[in-house]
Design brief:
Keywords: Dioxygenase, Oxidoreductase. This is Prolyl 4-hydroxylase alpha subunit domain-containing protein. This protein is α+β, with helices and mostly antiparallel strands and about 230 residues long. It has a single domain, classed as Sandwich (Jelly Rolls). It is about 25% helix and about 25% strand. The chain is built from four helices and twelve strands, in the order βααβββαββαββββββ. Strands 1, 2, 3, 4, 5, 6, 7, 8, 9 and 12 form a ten-stranded mixed sheet that branches. β10 and β11 form a beta hairpin. The longest helix is centred in the middle third of the chain and has 22 residues.
């Protein structure tokens, strides 16, 4: 299955209005308007797919337009401008910000997480789930050459100041691909924190040092194959 941890940072204090209104009745016509134009057209481009697939399979780093692939310490891809329609993304953020969230605390992590987005009765969220479950999942499976089942784990996580998620490899149940859709503010930079830190491994396959740090970028999708060496925080 695929697991996504979307970092909807500080949204509890940043509720956004949909087209200047809190009227939930706007959901349906907006969803109809966006139905064919939610995600980037790159995922429908044969040339984009070829570039990604060749570099992924050959373990070759690349930065090309909205595509970035790093290969060390393990392969991680980022697609910029992932949601094609910014109004949809803002409406999605608003809908998710209104969901109940539970604070999770233990030695490994401290952050807030919503209920599963698969169980939410919101037309906008349902449309987002649908496109991830179909087009995005099929594209990742095909281009990364990873067989996926029909299970998707999808929720929103909010990390406030001093929250954290320590080093782990994401090997839970049958998870094969992990991905993050960043919706942190457009002005977010490295000094604001929240980097996705990637670890190399020692001769025993255990995490050693941070060798890459990926800064959150608004409306970018980061994803990677879950393996014995996909240690990150």
């Amino acid at each position: 299955g695929i697991e996504e941890m979307e970092e909807f940072r500080r949204l509890k204090n940043r509720r956004l209005d949909i087209l200047g209104s809190d009227d939930d009745s706007l959901d349906e016509p907006l969803v109809k308007r966006w139905r064919s134009s939610i995600i980037t057209e790159d995922l429908s481009s044969a040339s984009f797919e070829k570039i990604f697939q060749e570099n992924w399979s050959n373990n070759t780093p690349i930065k090309h337009d909205d595509l970035e692939l790093i290969t060390s310490p393990f392969k991680v891809c980022r697609i910029y401008n992932f949601i094609q329609n910014n109004d949809f993304l803002e409406a999605l953020k608003s809908s998710v910000a209104q969901l109940p969230a539970k604070r999770l605390v233990n030695d490994l992590y401290t952050y807030q997480q919503t209920i599963s987005l698969l169980d939410v009765d919101s037309d906008i969220i349902k449309q987002f789930v649908e496109v991830l479950s179909t087009k995005v999942k099929a594209w990742m499976s095909r281009t990364m050459n990873i067989e996926l089942n029909d299970t998707i784990s999808l929720s929103s996580a909010c990390y406030n100041k001093l929250d954290y998620l320590l080093c782990h490899d994401d090997q839970i149940d049958d998870r094969r691909i992990a991905f993050i859709l960043y919706v942190s503010p457009v002005t977010w930079d490295r000094e604001d924190g929240g980097t996705l830190d990637l670890f190399d491994v020692d001769e025993h396959g255990l995490p050693r040092n941070i060798t890459q740090s990926i800064v959150p970028v608004y409306n970018s999708m980061v994803f990677f194959e879950v393996t014995n060496e996909s240690y990150h925080q």
